[in-house]
Amino acid sequence: MSKLRKKAARFNRKRNRSKNAHYRTDGRLRLCVYRSNKNIEAQIIDDTKSVTVVSASSIDKNIKNKINKDTTKTEQSKIVGKILAERAAKKKIKLIVFDRNGFNYHGRVKALAEAARDGGLSF
Fold first, then answer.
1. Distance of alpha carbon 81 from alpha carbon 75, whole angstroms
2. SS3 28
3. How confident is the model at residue 40 (pLDDT cuts 50, 70, 90)?
4. Which of 6, 45, 86, 115 has the smallest count of CB within 10 Å of its CB?
5. What gap in Å lies between CA 49 and CA 111, rounded to an integer?
6. Is the CB of residue 15 less than 8 Å from the CB of residue 101?
7. DSSP letters along 45-109, please?
8. Spans of all domains in the chain
9. How far apart, in Å, are the Cα atoms of 43 and each of 4, 6, 7?
10. DSSP-assigned letter for residue 119
11. Is the pTM above the cut of 0.70?
12. Which fold has domain 3-118?
């Protein structure tokens, strides 16, 4: 097995392990985070209906206007988390489960989570 395949398999095991704990929640919605090298995306998902309720991304036109070229990726994550919390508040969503999607709770993922908590979401 090549190094890349080992790395991908390790990431998938970590991702599935973090997701497995969230399926046993009591009907809470799930905040799922995806992080690429340039952008970050977050969405609140209702797993019972398999529907995305609220989403925010650094690619969205409304959010992209608020992000300057000098803004760091961590600051972009804070902006996305804050806007996601505002959109969730409009839909009257407060209790969620945080799904880090296999990514370490560190850096941009942590910044997004803390901004969402400051915006009113509790998890």
1. 10
2. coil
3. very high
4. 6
5. 29
6. yes
7. EETTTTEEEEEEETTSHHHHHH--TT--HHHHHHHHHHHHHHHHHHTT--BEEEE-TTS-SSTHH
8. 3-118
9. 28, 28, 26
10. T
11. yes
12. Nucleotidyltransferase; domain 5 (3.30.420)
Question: What distance in Å separates the CA atoms of residue 117 and residue 63, rounded to the nearest whole number?
Answer: 19
Decide if pLDDT at 50 tops 90. Answer: no
Q: What is the mean pLDDT of residues 83-96?
A: 95
Token pair of 115 as six digits: 């901004």
Provide the token pair at 38.
Answer: 């340039």
As given in the structure block, the two tokens for residue 6 are: 């080992």
How is residue 79 written in tokens? 């902006």
Please give the structure tokens belonging to residue 48: 């019972």
User: For residue 88, how many other CB atoms are within 10 A of its CB?
Assistant: 22
CA–CA separation, 76 and 19 (whole Å) = 25
